[in-house]
Each structure stands twice: as C-alpha cells, then as structure tokens.
Amino acid sequence: MKIVSWKSVFLFVVLGAIPVNGAEKQPNILFLFTDDHATQAISAYGENGLTKLAPTPNIDRIAEEGILFRKCYVTNSICGPSRAVILTGKYSHINGFRKNGDTFDGSQVTVPKLLRKAGYQTAIVGKWHLKSTPTGFDHYEVLKGQGRYYNPGLYTNGKMVSHEGYTTDIITDQTIKWLESRDKEKPFYLMSQHKAPHGRWEPAIRHLDWLDDVRVPEPESLFDDYSGRSGPAANHEMGIADHIGEKRLMLSYSSKFTPEQFKLFDGHFRPRNEAFLAANLTGKDRTRWHYQRYIKNYLRCVRGVDENIGRLLQYLDDNNLAENTVVMYSSDQGFYLGEHGWFDKRWMYEESFRTPLVARWPGRVAPGSVNDTDLVSNIDFPETFLEIAGAPVPDDMQGRSLMPLLQGETPGDWRKSHYYHYYESGGHGVALHYGVTDGRYKLIRFPEPKYNTSEFYDLVTDPNEMESRYGDPVLAEEQARMEMELDRLREKFQVD
Ligand SMILES: [Ca+2]
C-alpha cells in the first residue's frame, strides 16, 4: 500500500501538475502534424532523389535526437478520418467519421478531454478539418475546412480572426503566441497542425524560385500501367498525366492575396505557364512536365513546414522547454509523389498507407533510435499521449500505447498485423477497400460488386507493389494465413 504524506498532498493540491508520489513533472506534449506529407520527402527516412535536393533538417533533428518509426500505418488514408482516429483512438466505423465530409461528433471522449482531466492545458492551432467546433481544448484556433495558403482566417475560440501572411508561418506564429500566454504552472498538450503540404500546392513567396534550375528525379513507377493489379487501380482519377489538372499545376490562386502578394506570386509563374501551354506537349513528355511542376511546388511547401518546425524547436530551446517536452511529428497520411503515376492518397499501397512518425523525449527516448520493424499506427497516438501524461486509458480505445517502443522495448505480444479500411467510393476514382498487412505481405479486398476482387503483395520481392500475387499457388499458404488474419481483425475491431 502506498502511503501518501500530507506534504505530498499539499504539493499535489498546490501544484496540480506534479504527481503525488513522484518528483517527475508531467511532460508537455507538442504534437506537430501536417497534411499529406509523404515519408519519401523527409530526409530522415533516407536519401533519395527528392531528399537529396530538398532535405528536411528540422524534422530530421527530431529523429536524430529521438526515434524514427519506419512502419507507421494509418487506419484510413484520408484527412478527416485520420484526425478523428488521433482524437479518439478508435477506428472510423466506431468514431463515426468514415469519410471527408462527415461531421465529427465532438461529444465523444477524446484525448484533449482526458488530458484536461489529468491537469493539462490543451490547445490546437491550425488545420482541424472535422467540421464540428473543436471540443476539449482550452484554446482553439483553426482553419475553416481546408483553409487557404495565404491570409487565412482562423476560427479562434468562437470568433473568426483574419491574418495576413503565409499560413504555415502564421500557424507557427500563433502556436508560439499561445505558448507565451499559457498558464506556465501547468503542463500542456498542444496540437500545431499545418495545412501544408496539401494541394493545391502554393509555396511561400520566399521559396518560389527555389528548385527552379534542377530536374527532380522521377519515381520508378511513374509510368505504371496497372496491368499487374486486379482492376480498381486502373480506374483511378488521380493521375499526374491526366487528372492533376491545370489549376493544380498552374497554382490555383485559391488564396486571397493582397495586391502586393499577388504581384510577387503571379508575376513569378505566369510567363512559364504560357510557355508550357504553347509547347503543347503530349504523351510521356507531358506527364514529365506535370510531374516537375507538381513535385517542385510540393517540395517548396514542405520546405515551409520544415523551417517552421525549426522555429518551434528553437522556441523550446530558448525557453527551457526542450527537456520536459515530448515532441512528435506526423502527418494525417502519406502521399503519392508520382509513384504509380499518381498524386493524392487513399489507397492501401505503401506510399499513402504509411505515414511519418518521429518523436523526441530527452532522457526517455535514446537519440538516434530507429524502429524498422514494429507495426505502429496513428490509432496508437491517443494511448501514447495518455500514458505519457500518466492519465488512465479508456478500455474501448483500439490502439496501444507506444511508450515501450519509444524506449526501445517491444512487448512480446505487440501486434503482428494491422487492419486498414477506406470508406469512400469514387473520390479520385478510388474504390472502397479494406485489408491487412503483416509488414511483409499485404492482402487488399475491393468488396464493391463492380469489382469484388482481391490483391496480394509481397513487399520483400516486390517493394513497389507492381504485381498482385493473389491466387498465386506459390504464395497459397501466406495468402490463406492473411485471409484468416483479416477475418480475425475485422471481428476484433467490430467491423460490420
Ligand atoms: Ca491529408
């Protein structure tokens, strides 16, 4: 039995943030989050044609001073649903947010609500994208819907406030302002969430010229003809060749620029746009031109993010916060950077199924740690945050705390497979599908009557997933095992 002294009761009552029995302060949690940021565009994940040209030193710093997970998979590769999972720790069919366009039920139990009970101040700044008004936050300051890249409005504790400048910078400015004004006696849980690098890709004006004079290497599968797949992929509407569209390539001007900004922005692009249109490119040349335009603007948006991550890390250093703050960086899902000829996400193929995850926690996470093998997921984030805070975890959350993995220990009963379910049908031509991976083999089912088909991949022999081996007698045993695993997980997670 634990004996609680009057002194510790006194300290608990007075200081609140300090647990009764320990000297350790509850750590702050800074969750840095982006939209559509693929691991292929983060240099901590390795050198490739993109990261050589466009490294991400500040995100890399989190990994160098902490841990990087190579197999972090989402449960549903689309913006709103991923966010709902990270708030609730529940699959889409349980938290009710299956598709973009759904409305998040803010009366649910969520991480910020539980952390508040545990003594935390909670805040969110940036992209929300769940339609309903944020709940559980002491402070919210969020973009409306997708938000704009320039001069955004931020819905701030019930009131729309206009800002002038580049949104990625402004989200960081406002994040820092909240940190400055917070109650410094309490630990914080702060979600700083960027719109970038979501399309349509509008870089900061200071990055418009960057990468102008280089040719970005193309991915191996840029000209995938989908002949190795079962059917649905060929019906996509997310091709760099045919679907990316002039608006996305020419910059959409979805932003409302000030006249001064417009001059800088428009003046930079229009002449080259006209040159392109005049060139009247066709076939592979056209795809290649589209790819260069797309990838450069994407990488420019990423650079804006990385610089701002650096600003926040510097703020933590300058304010004596780095030591007792867990910093986690992730994205709502990965993205196709030309792989399979695509932009966008949604599919259970690796590039959009996988999402970045790096985390730093001085004294608890060994610097330079890499977890190559364990299957982790965005559904694990909520329980991780709660355990870090020392808060109780509700029984009905469906993930698992990453706490042991952060410290280099993999429990013997850690998951050996992960369930995925994408619920939209037709967005960018992507069919509804669900499936399972064990980190090597992947089984995908497309249950809609027009397809009613399955695919099976071996990532060791076919890392780019170019040829489905479904029904291949050589892999019959593995396929049967994964079919059973899929059924087991669907039952476990109560999928109807
Ligand atoms: Ca997204």
Structure description:
With about 500 residues, the chain is an alpha/beta fold. It has a domain at about 25-200 and about 295-410: Alkaline Phosphatase, subunit A, CATH 3.40.720. The protein has 14 helices and 16 strands. A 10-stranded mixed beta sheet has the order 7-6-5-4-8-1-9-10-2-11, sandwiched between helices. Strands 13-14-15-16 form a 4-stranded antiparallel beta sheet, with helices on one face. The protein has a two-stranded parallel sheet with strand order 3-12. A hairpin with a 3-residue loop joins strand 14 and strand 15 (about 440-445). Helix 7 packs parallel to helix 10. Mean pLDDT is about 90; it is low at about 1-25. Calcium ion binds near residues 198 and 333. Calcium ion binds near residues 36, 79 and 333.
Summarize this entry quickly.
The protein is 31% helix and 15% strand.
What distinguishing features does this structure have?
15% strand, binds calcium ion, 16 strands, ten-stranded mixed sheet, alpha/beta, globular, single chain, four-stranded antiparallel sheet, 496 residues, disordered N terminus, 14 helices, Alkaline Phosphatase, subunit A
